[in-house]
Design a protein that fits this description.
single chain; mainly beta; Maltoporin, Chain A; 22-stranded antiparallel beta barrel; 5-stranded mixed beta sheet; 5 helices; globular; Plug_dom_sf; transport; siderophore uptake transmembrane transporter activity; TonB-dependent receptor
């Protein structure tokens, strides 16, 4: 009872300014943005999909320090960390597996073909992010394979001024680590330096970030280095070029991460390089064209026994080279989107061998607003994979405007997830082994929802049904057997999702209240007597309440989230941030998991309890 009362007191304090001055609230328009989680780049107010957007201003106020922590606060997103501070995490949407969610940067696919355990190896600092878009539901019509349950698109900023910045932060639980670790208080520390250069014709930004932690448990210490660079060149008013390069080095103790209890002495080192170059051409008032080339290279050195590298060591070298051509054509009766793309995947591995596969796709979509009160977006993606052959993903989105504020939407479509190289070829006996006879997962999802939008209030409530055929899960029938993936049958999910966003301003103070709730009812055809590695921990109930207030000088936020998994494991977490700005300098203090809740996000790995952080950021710009 005391735990509940503490939460009630905290929320009451947070809402006190709202209760006292609500009658003074002024209308405050919510910024209209163009959703890039769609090839046709539809304005948010006209989109017929379940899309959530978190922009840079909101991210800056939240009690977060890296991308993983931000994703954990998004509606319908299940972030399951094996260690804090970006060590290793899996992300999924609406009860899907972590390999059924596609990760993109500026629309370019960065998901890892070796294993989706590495898909979040993204060296993008929060200061370089313009916004994060989450597209929920079957997204294969838009993005092709592996967008089975949705896509997360990270949009980076375009430089608008020259600046220099430095950010230093540290934190601790002020508690000793577990008895086995025996080396003092658990801590983390990080520093980031960055610079941007703005010119009318070209812009550049570069960041370097370094973080280190001694780990909250035995053999979970981590360190990572990140480098991010982006440049833009405006050739003229209708043509521009953009390029991006990034590098990440991530080293961490992996005690219990993948093959507990035998991996107590394991360690993993992951290095990721991602580069892209694209151009945008408005060739006429009607025709737009954008080609892009990307390359993602990943090295994964997994040491099952870190003190004996001659035994049970796995080294994987993966490369994915992609080419895209996207276009839009505007007519008086609607817009057409057409495009082609190819991805060439290669892996050379000490325990998977050498494998190549290519993926080629083409899409076409059409959108019109010419029907009274009705918007239609329909299309299909045709895909050929050298390992799994041809597949077509049709889909349609409909939106009917009841009034200027109320809208009913409906969408349905198919999607697919191709097994990763790890699914197919892994050989880590006695830990995990692959299955080269796997089929790809195929799904169909249908969703209906009602939306409301005014100048300061956005609401969404919907229901969806998803049916996945040939669902892949890692299972074993005996405790001494290795885990191995099989197409075990159908995975059916009924889901309800709601999200409410209210923004207003009182006496130069801007308030933001974001409330969301999701319910999932999933069933899985599974043989009795088997143990599942992933599927038995999906979320059943998920709730969030984000409260933010700020003016020109200070900001404060409280992030509350409730998770209950189908195993009945549940936890309620509350994080707090207070920040204050001086000329060229800002300070912020975070208190995460302030009620010191004991919880687990994946496997049997306990996450940190109460945690305090302090940061100082300097920024000079003109």
């Amino acid at each position: 009872m005391k735990f509940i009362n503490n939460h009630q007191i905290l929320l009451a304090v947070a809402f006190l300014p709202l209760w006292g001055h609500a009658q003074e609230a002024k209308q405050d328009s919510i910024q209209e943005v163009t959703v890039h989680a769609n090839r046709l780049q539809i304005p948010f107010s006209k989109d017929n999909r379940n899309v959530e957007i978190l922009n840079a201003a909101q991210i800056k106020q939240l009690p977060v320090k890296n991308l993983n922590e931000v994703l954990g606060l998004l509606n319908g997103v299940d972030l399951r960390q094996r260690g804090p501070f970006g060590t290793q995490a899996d992300v999924s949407i609406d009860g899907g597996s972590f390999e059924q969610t596609l990760i993109l940067v500026n629309g370019a696919k960065v998901s890892d073909s070796q294993t989706a355990h590495h898909s979040l190896n993204l060296p993008i600092p929060l200061d370089a992010i313009e916004r994060i878009e989450v597209l929920r539901g079957a997204a294969a019509r838009i993005y092709g394979v592996n967008a089975l349950t949705g896509a997360i698109n990270i949009i980076t900023k375009t430089v608008d001024k020259s600046s220099i910045q430095a950010n230093v932060y540290t934190g601790s639980s002020f508690k000793n680590r577990d008895e086995e670790a025996k080396d003092g208080i658990y801590y983390h520390a990080g520093t980031q330096i960055g610079a941007s250069w703005f010119n009318d014709k070209h812009q550049h930004q570069v960041y370097y970030n370094k973080e280190k932690s001694n780990g909250q448990r035995y053999n979970t210490a981590s360190q990572n280095d990140k480098i991010f660079y982006q440049g833009n060149l405006a050739l003229d008013g209708n043509n521009e070029v953009e390029w991006l390069g990034s590098y990440m080095y991530n080293r961490f103790g992996a005690n219990g991460f993948y093959a507990a209890p035998g991996d107590r002495e394991s360690e993993e080192i992951v290095e990721t390089i991602f580069a892209s170059i694209s151009s945008k051409h408005q060739l006429s008032e009607r025709f737009y064209l954008s080609p892009r080339i990307t390359n993602r290279y990943n090295e994964d050195d997994y040491r099952y026994f870190k003190h004996n590298l001659s035994s049970a060591r796995s080294r994987h070298y993966t490369n994915a080279f992609s080419m895209e051509l996207n276009s839009r054509y505007h007519t008086t009766f609607g817009d057409f989107g057409l495009g082609l793309e190819s991805r060439l995947d290669r892996i050379a591995s000490s325990n998977m061998g050498v494998h190549n596969r290519n993926n080629h796709g083409a899409y076409a979509e059409f959108r019109t607003e010419q029907l009274k009160n009705l918007t239609v977006n329909a299309g299909a993606y045709i895909n050929y994979n050298t390992q799994y052959g041809w597949q077509v993903y049709p889909g349609i989105d409909l939106g009917y405007n009841i009034t200027r504020s109320w809208k009913v939407v409906f969408n349905t479509g198919s999607s697919q997830r191709i097994p990763s190289f790890t699914d197919l070829y892994l050989n880590q006996r006695p830990g995990n082994i692959g299955n080269p006879d796997l089929f790809s997962e195929d799904a169909w999802q249908t969703e209906g929802a009602i939306k409301f939008q005014s100048t300061n209030f956005i609401a969404h409530g919907g229901y969806f049904y998803r049916n996945i055929r040939d669902f892949i899960d890692w299972i074993k029938t005996d405790v001494n057997d290795p885990y191995q993936p099989f197409n075990i049958g159908k995975n059916k999910v009924h889901g309800i999702n709601t999200n409410f966003l209210y923004t207003f301003q009182v006496n130069n103070i801007r308030y933001r209240v974001n409330l969301g709730y999701n319910y999932l009812d999933s069933s899985l055809e599974q043989t009795e007597g088997v143990t599942s590695k992933y599927s038995l921990e999906n979320l059943k109930h998920q709730g969030k309440l984000l409260l933010m207030a700020n003016n020109r000088i200070w900001n404060a936020s409280i992030a509350n989230r409730f998770h209950q998994r189908i195993s009945d494991k549940s936890y309620f977490l509350t994080d707090l941030r207070i920040g204050y700005s001086f000329p060229f300098l800002s300070v912020y203090a975070d208190a995460q998991n302030i009620f010191d809740v004991t919880y687990i996000e994946t496997s049997a790995i306990p996450m940190p309890g109460r945690w305090y952080s302090l940061g100082i950021k300097y920024e000079w710009g003109r």
